[in-house]
Design a protein that fits this description.
two-stranded parallel sheet; six-stranded mixed β-sheet; about 10% strand; 10 strands; 2 domains; single chain; alpha/beta
């Protein structure tokens, strides 16, 4: 046993079947939900490895600082884009309003009953409008609490005997786990659910999200066979997807309600990654534009640009034309993890960096439709004034 990585099939059951929590597991949980903003992390985040001195315009209206101080983000951006003369940088925390450089923003989950899907809206407004945003803030707080409840559904799906069928389906779709491995995952999930219940109230609510489950299992590679844990992670993602599909959107505010409240305070509204809920292109909502590219949504960029232009040409927009934007969808907490624990794709994202602007195939379409980043920044800033 000492010569091989630990694996449920090779370790005595007493080593992993006991459901009692240990001090080591409590410490592991506390370390995963801790927010440690020390000097080393500050130095790493504010001194990025990459710089783009030739970039003259920075548009960043879809990104998530999470627990990273906004002052650090500002210093990172100044180092990355030292010569930018045009900037529009607005944080869009999930279901929570943040303010930076005179602008407020958030990404709000809502429900489009017309086509039965949960969708998301990026909402931006000038800081001087914040006193009128109490209702929007309350809607965001409620949505944050409801969205956070998905963690408990996720853990229930992984640990409850009545969800064995769901777990079996997920295993067949993702990774072939044997009976011992499945039981190990179930017990670990049960322990994590108990830790969330017992120690979660003392943690920042932002840390109690679905990704905590992935982080918990990823952290087990210091004791258990890393190859085994790597097979567990796709299984977890498959279960999470099934939980999300079953998560009722009925308790979110209606998309139209959110739009009306945002417009009442003079906010701008952008639809992010519409390819994930394409019927929104047909809904004719009162919005300012569509995000046609981000790291999660880049399969239909040229098509989406054409769709936006078609809407503008047909006169469906009686007032201002729809804008074409791109988003980086950067989650800065990923950069705070040790390098071995990072998701490489997510860690590579940068606030204000959207490579699609310089992609040769996309640049042709941008030129054809006369879309320029500097003009989008100017136009959207004017709408938010």
């Amino acid at each position: 046993m000492n010569d091989q990585p630990w694996h449920p099939s090779r370790v005595p059951p007493s080593q992993w079947m006991d459901t009692e929590l240990t001090p080591e597991e409590e410490r592991r949980f506390d370390s995963l939900v801790a927010i440690e903003l020390d000097e080393a992390l500050e130095r790493r985040l504010t001194h990025p490895a990459l710089s783009y001195p030739s970039e003259a315009a920075v548009l960043a209206v879809h990104w998530h600082p999470e627990f990273v101080p906004l002052a650090w983000v500002t210093r990172r951006l100044e180092a990355m884009f030292p010569n930018a003369t045009e900037r529009l940088i607005i944080p869009t925390q999930h279901n929570h309003i943040l303010t930076l450089d005179g602008y407020c923003g958030l990404e709000l989950d809502c429900h489009s009953r017309e086509f039965g899907l949960k969708v998301q809206l990026l909402i931006h407004f000038a800081e001087h409008r914040m006193p009128r945003a109490q209702t929007l803030e309350a809607m965001a707080e409620y949505t944050f609490r409801y969205r956070a409840s998905q963690l408990y559904d996720f853990l229930h799906a992984l640990s409850s005997p009545d969800k064995a069928g769901l777990r079996g389906d997920a295993a067949r779709e993702s990774a072939a786990l044997d009976n011992d491995e499945m039981e190990f995952v179930r017990i670990q999930s049960w322990k994590l659910s108990r830790l969330v219940e017992a120690r979660g109230p003392g943690a920042d609510p932002m840390m109690l999200r679905n990704k905590l489950v992935m982080d918990w299992f990823a952290s087990l590679t210091d004791r258990w066979d890393p190859a085994f844990i790597q097979r567990v992670l796709p299984f977890l993602r498959a279960v999470k997807l099934k939980v999300k599909q079953a998560f009722s959107p009925e308790y979110f505010f209606l998309t139209q309600e959110v739009i009306e409240e945002a417009r009442s305070i003079g906010a701008g509204i952008i639809v992010p990654h519409p390819e994930q809920f394409w019927p929104i292109l047909l809904a004719d909502y009162d919005i300012d534009g569509y995000e046609v590219w981000n790291p999660q949504s880049q399969a239909y960029t040229n098509f989406l640009m054409g769709a936006v232009q078609n809407i503008n040409r047909t006169g469906r927009r009686r007032t201002r034309p729809l804008l074409t934007l791109m988003g980086d969808d950067c989650h800065l907490s990923e950069k705070c993890k040790p390098s071995h624990a990072q998701d490489p794709e997510k860690a590579a994202r940068e606030v204000g960096l959207q490579p699609a602007w310089d992609d040769l195939g996309i640049k042709k379409t941008l030129a054809m439709y006369n879309i320029r980043k500097t003009e989008i920044i100017s136009e959207y800033r004017q709408r938010l004034t």
